[in-house]
Amino acid sequence: MVSLLQRLGHFGLSVFQSLGRAHLFLLRTLWSLGSLTWRPRLLIRELYSVGVLSLLIILVSGLFVGMVLGYQGYITLVNFGAEEVLGSVVALSLVRELGPVVTALLFAGRAGSALAAEIGLMKTTEQLSSMEMMAVDPYKRVIAPRFLAGILAMPLLAAAFSAVGVWGGYFIGVGLLGVDGGSYWSQMQASVDFYDDVLSGIIKSIVFGFVASWIAVFQGYDATPTSEGISRATTNTVVYTALAVLALDFILTGLMFSA
Amino acid sequence: MTTRSIEIGVGLFVAIGIAALLVLALQVSNLHEYRQTDSYQVSAYFSNIGGLKVRAPVTVSGVRIGRVSEIYYDPNRFQARVVMTISTQYDYLPTDTQASIYTAGLLGEQYIALGVGGEEDALRDGDEILFTQSAVVLEELIGRVLVNMTAP
């Protein structure tokens, strides 16, 4: 009984310890961001591996999600004779929710796990400590560019996802199911507000990008330096990011769209 | 991978992202309506606005000329005050113009239709439309029909 209590206490303490480490880590990373201004090359290289290499999966998934929305929206709306509002249904659900959330989940799977594994392996093979030996700050050289690249890439990827998804809905709704093309766009423009919907979606995706890259680089940096530790870090990255993004999405939606 | 091709790739990525943002802003959303054309405001009192909302369209002969910019309850007159922002392109509305609240379709959103009057003078910024017709509340209408049907 007492040993069960002790194990519970140990678990609680270790959770709070890793939370504390994560926040100290975040503070130091934010502090190191300034050094990127005179070394933009590092940032560009990371933008390539985080953003450019994720672009294809984001575009393809966006297209398919938009096409599914077109189908499902049409099947439901045609019962009410309201298939003309298909454009608003597709665009609102993409811009407000699906764009930022699905992009963040894909981002965690495609880029976040890669970041965690890369940094974890650097730690395991003692590249990080040898950088410190050479008086190169690994926060400035390794962590900060990856973190910032994630934050910058996410809103761009989410916007690409939503835009492609809207076109996917157009192909299915207008091209295949015979909704009028003019009313698809005009209904969409009548109901999607730039500030309330598009801008809120972009803010959401920036927040998700921040959280996803924070979790990824921290899990990599905090990994146990063994091969098992790296595999756990990559798994944790995807799991924690998915949970954090979905919970944050609930909170942000409550804040943005409740009024 | 050479630095040059990495940089080209990143440039392409950023360009695609910005293009997608532009598509969302210009094609999907109503940003072009925010382009501030010159406008003036007139107000009207209604005893019942039904489901009228801010940003609902204001039309003349079915053509949209502005939007509802403000709705609040005036406790002195016991009526709802609706402020409409109308583009200066349509600045020749006679002072005896009538404002009515209609519904687009049977259950669609509500809008204000202006019926043009016959006076010489035109409405100016800050003026008030005197002749108004409240929204039709469906329940009231059904109630009236039922009363007529049950009458001997």
Q: Could you walk me through the main structural features you see in this protein, from its secondary elements to its overall organization?
A:
The complex is a heterodimer of chains A (259) and B (152). In chain A, 44% of the residues are buried. Chain A is an all-alpha fold and 259 residues long. The longest helix of chain A is centred in the middle third of the chain and has 39 residues, at 86-124. Chain A has helices spanning 2-32, 40-77, 86-124, 127-133, 138-176, 181-191, 194-221, 227-257. Chain B has two domains: 3-32; 36-142, no CATH class. In chain B, strands 7-1-4-3-2-6-5-8 form an eight-stranded mixed β-sheet, with no helix packed on it. Chain B is built from three helices and eight strands, in the order H-H-E-E-E-E-E-E-E-E-H.
Shape of chain B: elongated
Query: Within the largest sheet of chain B, what's the order of strands?
Result: 7-1-4-3-2-6-5-8
Q: Report how far the terminal alpha carbons of chain B are from each other.
A: 91 Å
The assigned structural class of chain B equals alpha/beta
Tell me about the biggest sheet of chain B? 8 strands, mixed
Number of domains of chain A: 1
Determine the oligomeric state from the structure. Answer: heterodimer
Helix content of chain B: 25-40%
Give the proportion of residues in helices of chain A: over 70%
Count of helical segments of chain A?
Answer: 8
Strand content of chain A: under 5%
